[in-house]
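Q: What structure does this chain adopt?
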Amino acid sequence: MGRMSNEAIEALIPQLDAVDESPGAAALRARSYELLRAAQGAQVVDVGCGAGRAVAELADQGVRVMGIDVSDQMITLARERWPYGEFCVGDAYALPLEDGEAAGYRADKVIHALADPGRALAEARRVLASGGRIVVCGQDWDTLVTDSSDPELTRTIVRKRADQVPSPRAARQYRNLLLDAGFRDVTVEVHTGVFTGGSFLPVLTRLAEVCCEHGAITPAQADTWIADQRERARADRLFAAVPIFMAAATSP
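A:
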């Protein structure tokens, strides 16, 4: 599992916060908890826990949950925000759990960040007890919809930004990945997040910035596109829609 620079993580935190606080995000997290079917006191692992919101919410439900993230910076932030949560630095390919120790495995906005999703899901199966539940969710990076004054440039930005993600189309592969890893009773849902507020602006801004940093678009193109999105946010005309794929399955 690749490690991000401190600067990249600092840029990522406000984006994750914006998504977590957007309309419908709490209901989406609640749906992932429902699909886990975790009993009181059951051991659940939240892989790629980030700033730890889901760990705290699951703990509030009486679930024994461990938040794991490859970034010590994220784990430090999670411990600051949720002092009663259990967090540790760890890798999705080598989780700090024994075989069959967990009753539930959750990974939100994580699988697409891995170069080898199949390896991570094989590790998920290792740590899950028979009958344990796995829930993975995230976006397909080719399916972001954003209104703009330059549709062609927007199409380029979405495509080129997807190219910077290790596994940008992992979400559309969830079902097959889970089946290939040996899970059964696989289900897939799609929940589309609609964003019209200025709080989502950092996410859109970062799309163009990353493309510019990798030479996919020019600085002038990035500046023009970002200025358009900022003006849309100011005028209450920002619009973005992100289909979120949520897959669940049972360990054999």
